[in-house]
Design a protein that fits this description.
LacI/GalR-like_sensor; six-stranded parallel β-sheet; transcription; single chain; elongated; 434 Repressor (Amino-terminal Domain); Rossmann fold; LacI family DNA-binding transcriptional regulator; alpha/beta; 14% strand; four-stranded parallel β-sheet; 342 residues; 12 strands; DNA-binding transcription factor activity; 3 domains
Length: 342
């Protein structure tokens, strides 16, 4: 039996690891806690001793040495119900988890409600309860951007920051390009009265996708006044579709800035006796599962959320580790995914 397997034996101590490895206690501590000034030979000896003795480092003691918590936060300034129902956030978690698989770092989910919740979150982040933060679905009036831009806490935004795109690293899909390509597709298949259900205009994605819609219509010489605002939810998309039909009853194509809004619009069109795609062609944005499950299935724009959040986490880990990284944003493309609705 090894020492570790003997019943009743105490947990191995740092001193025993040092003795087994033939190094000083301070060298063993630095080797275990990722400190500097440890030779490759000493590091290997300590690693072998840890395995042989079954030593488990004390995380609290390690934090005192490294000043790290071994955790990062996913910060979402949205209501609980949206975080739990929107597939965007599930895919974001999937990408972050993939990046953390081979690390000891834990992921902390912070749902920062947009009333006083963002202030509590700001205090939490300022006090460095985590080693870094990934922020998604942020709004123009969030305090998070200002707090993080002025803090020493490593952070990465998924989505273009409003005020500090030069100082905050971020990952995003090319939303202007996506909105333009979606609208160009509707024009190419014969639509001439193209409306849009825009996302919230206090979010960069909402503004940029609307800008892409306008660019495509201007290039085609078509009017761009058929606009209704949504909120990236199905109910918001339904209300916006009702408005479009009321104000622009001759609309023959609609670009909805998210698939959830497009799904809500689809129900309203059906209720008004408008066949899709025969009477109105409809295209969404995201392709995160909702688009393939509607009737008819939605033509949409791809949004590589899993890959974007994975890259965001990798950039954040580089920041936390003090590794040099390019400050240039990582921008992903968006492609048309053709299905029956257009």
């Amino acid at each position: 039996m090894s020492q570790v397997e003997r019943p009743g034996r105490h947990a191995p101590t740092l001193e025993e690891v040092a003795e087994h490895a033939g190094v000083s206690r301070s060298t063993a501590s630095r080797a275990i806690n990722g400190g500097l000034r440890v030779s490759p030979e000493a590091q290997s000896a300590v690693d072998r001793a840890i395995v042989a003795l079954g030593y488990s480092p004390n995380r609290a003691a390690r934090s005192l040495v490294t000043r790290r918590t071994d955790s990062i936060a996913l910060v979402v300034p949205e209501p609980d119900e949206r975080v739990l129902s929107d597939p965007y956030f599930a895919r974001t978690l999937q990408g972050l988890s993939a990046a953390l698989t081979d690390t000891e770092i834990q992921l902390v989910l912070i749902i920062a409600r947009r009333d006083d919740g963002t202030q509590r979150t700001a205090r939490y982040l300022r006090n460095q309860h985590v080693d870094g933060a990934v922020v998604v679905s942020h709004h123009r009036d969030d305090s998070l951007e200002e707090v993080l831009a002025g803090s020493r806490l490593p952070c990465v935004f998924v989505g273009r920051p409003w005020q500090s795109p030069e100082t905050i690293q971020y990952v995003d899909v090319d939303n202007v390009l996506g909105g333009r390509r979606a609208t160009e597709y509707l024009v190419q298949v014969g639509c001439r009265r193209v409306g849009t259900i825009a996302g919230p205009l206090d979010m960069a994605a909402g503004v940029d996708r609307l800008a892409g819609w306008r660019e495509a219509l201007a290039a085609a010489g078509l009017p761009d006044h058929a606009v209704a605002r949504g909120d990236f939810t199905s109910s918001g998309g339904a209300a916006a579709m009702e408005q479009l039909l009321r104000e622009h009853p001759d609309v023959d194509g609609v670009f909805a800035a998210s698939d959830l809004m497009a799904a809500g619009a689809l129900e309203v069109l059906r209720a008004h006796g408008r066949a899709v795609p025969e009477d109105v062609r409809l295209i969404g944005f995201d392709d995160l599962g909702v688009a393939a499950s509607t009737a008819p299935p939605l033509t949409t724009m791809s949004n590589p959320v899993v890959e974007m959040s994975r890259v965001a986490a990798e950039v954040l880990l580089d920041q936390v580790a003090g590794r040099a990284t390019s400050h240039a944003p990582r921008i992903f493309g968006a492609e048309v995914v053709v299905r029956a609705s257009a």
